[in-house]
Specification:
Helix content: 40-55%
Number of strands: 6
Number of helices: 8
Distance between the termini: 15 Å
Structural class: alpha/beta
Radius of gyration: 15 Å
Strand order of the largest sheet: 1-2-3-4-5-6
Largest sheet: 6 strands, parallel
Order of helices and strands: HHEHEHEHEHEHEH
Strand content: 15-25%
Length: 188
């Protein structure tokens, strides 16, 4: 995780969820200022809204933060427009977190711009697919996570399955981690 933290420019190995409607400029900037990976939820936002949200966030922090995009909610042209707006309106300190797998062209757009890309997945197959797209890390989401789910396994089982498969990417966990004790239990 130290290599990923360095790549993202954060001090702590924690990435805030990009929860639509909640993960606005104030929260993303506060998490960023605390040394973790604040994430701005862009949900179905259009280009002008994206530019405004990025500006509001950057006005609150000079530290790196991420943007969360959801490929399954957007068609390819709309997702490409979102990514283009982020790339145009932000500096290199803004990284991407995709909830689910982006298409190859979108992944190339992000990776080609030199931006870090994290992909949230719910299965071993999706973790390998994210790796083949050039992800810097995968976020393994267990069924304990709130909101929408990507898989059918509990977080511990999913982590065990992906670790045993030999995937060579940093792995982050999402779902059911609500205390320091739970965090330590997952990292055994």
């Amino acid at each position: 995780m130290n290599g990923l933290a360095k790549r993202l420019g954060i001090s702590f190995p924690l990435i805030q969820a990009g929860m639509g409607g909640i993960a606005g400029a104030e929260l993303a900037a506060a998490v960023s200022r605390a040394g973790a990976g604040g994430v701005l939820g862009l949900y179905r936002m259009r280009e002008e809204g994206i530019r405004e949200a990025l500006h509001r966030t950057r006005m609150r922090t000079s530290l790196p933060f991420g943007v969360n995009l959801i490929p399954e909610l957007m068609g390819r042209p709309a997702l490409a427009a979102q990514v283009g707006a982020v790339l145009e309106a932000s500096d290199a300190g803004v990284f991407f977190v995709f909830y689910g797998l982006p298409d190859q062209a979108t992944a190339r757009q992000v990776v080609g711009a030199g931006r870090a890309m994290l992909v949230m997945v719910g299965s071993k197959a999706s973790a390998f697919a994210a790796s083949s797209l050039g992800a810097d890390a995968v976020v393994l989401q267990g069924i304990e996570a709130g909101g929408h789910l990507l898989g059918v396994l509990g977080l511990r089982e999913l982590i065990s399955e992906v670790v045993a498969s030999g995937l060579q990417l940093p792995l982050l966990g999402a779902g059911g981690i609500a205390s320091g004790h739970a965090f330590r239990e997952i990292h055994r």
